[in-house]
Amino acid sequence: MSVMSTMPATREASAPSFLEFVVIIAFMMALGSMSIDNLLPAFDVIRSDFGLSSTNEVQLILSAYMIGFAIMQLVYGPASDIVGRKPTLMVGLVVFAIGSVIALYSTSFEMLLAARFIQGMGAAATRILSVAIVRDRFQGREMARVMSLTMMVFIIVPIFAPSIGSLFLLVGSWHTIFVSMLVLAALLAVWFGRRMPETLHPEYRMPFSMRRIADGARRCVSLRVTVGYATAMGLMFGALMGYLGSTQQIFETEVYGLGAIFPVVFGSLAAVMGVASFVNSKLVRRLGMRRLSHAGICGYLAFAVLMVGLAIAYDGKPPLLLFAVALAGCQFLFSLTMPNFNTMAMEPLGDIAGTASSLIGFYTTILGTVVGLVISQNFDGTVLPLALGFVVVGVVALATVLVTERGRLFHPQHADPLPGALADFGGH
Length: 428
What we know:
By secondary structure, the chain is mainly alpha-helical. Helix content is 77%, strand content 0%.
């Protein structure tokens, strides 16, 4: 049942339509995605400009951003539970803009990394607030449906982002990409500020109290379903980060040498994820989150094993079409798991949605960044490290889901709070 129906009439009258709501939330999430994906074509140019010796070094642009993104998630959620969602988002957008300006005037690679770290600190607000706002207004399968629709719109960004980045490189330098980020942040601030009402329910607004924040944190780590699905989500996110970190080297330069065609292939794979998100939004009401996500993780692992088989059979460089089909299968099934894992982790925590979103976001981002860095830094001129990374992630994520569900897959059930501690997560 939608929480929208319980909101006061005065607030409901000023709220955007369902479609506009989804698009605004998707725009919030897309700012972070754009800040990653439209820089991918500029990796070689940035490496050349700063005299870097290895293409793997340029991947630190992503890692610095994600570390800042992870850390500040701990701040924005509790802050939004205290002062509200709107002012918290505006602060985050200001921080993001400051990082973008510093990047524009970077005179060294270290300065650029610092700018990316600050950008990530600001962009964290868009991730935390998007999940918290959706949880403010929806719950259960309706929340999963909204998150899937949001992800579908959000995933459109990677389809075009590398092409947009390439276009900026044609008309200017990589600095112009950061100008575009500034413009997007300003547009989001204006649109959100004018159209989105404050969604934090008055009864859930918390006065500042470290004890309340600590109590919220204890609730998060004492819920089996929250810890389990957040861990599985973080692992899956790590696979995505490993892919993003090495995709430019795999498709554009070192493995397949696609050059200018790279954005087309990258966008096509992103489109597969968008289709999967749409399918998830249609099926989740009927089949439920567990059935879809559990089938998704099992299928993901199967396609990952296929990728490894292809990599071994062709000495690390399988035919592009075969590799792309296997990778597309992984990406499709990835999009059947992530929105549902996120929803199930958040489901029992609606009254502390901001704090919960922060803690879950911090944990999953740190875990995903570390896993992704390990995968991408092992790039050796073949697709084998990425394929092996996908398999390891799939195995560990599936094992985590099995522990969370006490060995039973595909069975709808309610979250069960554990009395006290993470130690009980082991399945007692």
